[in-house]
Amino acid sequence: MIHAPCRGAVVNLSNRIHSAYKIRTLTTTTSSRRSSICSATRSGSSHSRHLQSKAKLTQHRQSVALHSKSYTTASTTTTTTMSATTTKPPIPNLRDLAGGSSSILRPNLILRSAAPPTVSSPELEALNISTVFDLRSALEAARPNSSGDAGNPEAPEQWPGGPRRVHVPVFEGADYGPEAVALRFRKYADSHPTEGFVTAYRDIAIAGAPAFATVLNHIASDEFDPVAQKPILVHCTAGKDRTGVLCALILSLCDIPDEVVAEEYGLTTQGMAAAKPGLIKYLVSTPAFAGDEAGAERMLSSKPEAMVATLAMIRKEWGSTEGFFLKESKLSPDTITRVRQKLIISN
């Protein structure tokens, strides 16, 4: 369990995922997972269930703020991994992708974050991470990270004696940190910021398909033991865009509803809160934004609607998240089945 304080908020988040998942899968059949889920939510006979789901999503939004404060709120709750009095996470924007122990997904299997330190600490060691997947380019990995540690794109370990590090860049020779994404898609910042994110995230999904395959093949492998309590960590520079796309695709592959996937993505707003003022200051100093602080703010946002639109684009172009992984990442149906078996709690 990563977020010790505000444990109730984490459990609430987990219950939200579980409840929404059950609503979406009431009519699931082996012949058509996605079409059955859609028909269950869209049919007139499921109107009352839809209202219940909407109400629960509202409750979930309220829990997001509490969840995002889990490192900064004092609590008497203790866990085996983190001190209850920890004032900040050992890695910026760190969280468990499953959202907590009661989720439909097994907790403490996939962690996501911004770039982690390259020097060990008791808090990092307590996470018990087995493998770190670095989605940054070599250019980004060579820079000092948010902790000020010197970068080394060739390092086989995240820190000396620490977890194995696997460098799987989404873009081999390009900077694709949050400020770089904002600059690339500046034209959308004023009139249609969601379209800008969909365009950017489509680029990330296609370019990152081989890197994503490496992560999912590892999850499907015998090396990845879901009961060992040795999670993997996936990250990019800020843990926002490349990490956000991969994590959203994984959640969607496990049939987590779009609204819940988007809310998880939205947690990055709080995860990036400390770094955001500096990023905005940098952007408004560039010719592309020319002092437009509001435009910079929009393009650095992690609004749930951007991820909802991205997942709609994935289905429009590839039919489903599974279709995307089959075609672009060249995963086999058997690998996808094993990923689901590893991540989803069986009934």
Our measurement of the CA-to-CA distance between the termini, rounded to an integer number of angstroms, reads 21 Å
Number of helices: 15
Rg, Cα atoms, Å: 19 Å
CATH secondary-structure class: Alpha Beta
CATH architecture: Alpha-Beta Complex
Percentage of residues assigned to helices:
40-55%
Order of helices and strands: HHHEEHEHEHHEHHHHHHHH
**Biggest sheet: strand arrangement:** 1-2-5-3-4
The general outline is: globular
Are there runs of 5+ residues with pLDDT below 50, and where? Answer: 1-86
Note the main sheet: 5 strands, mixed
| Overall tally of domains | 1
Can you describe this structure?
The protein is mainly α and 347 residues long. It has one domain (88-343): Protein tyrosine phosphatase superfamily (Protein-Tyrosine Phosphatase, Chain A). The chain is built from 15 helices and five strands. The protein has a five-stranded mixed beta sheet, with helices on one face. Helix 3 runs parallel beside helix 9, helix 7 (193-220) crosses helix 13 and helix 9 (258-266) crosses helix 13 (304-318). The protein starts with 6 loop residues before the first helix and ends with a helix. The model is unreliable at 1-86 (pLDDT under 50).
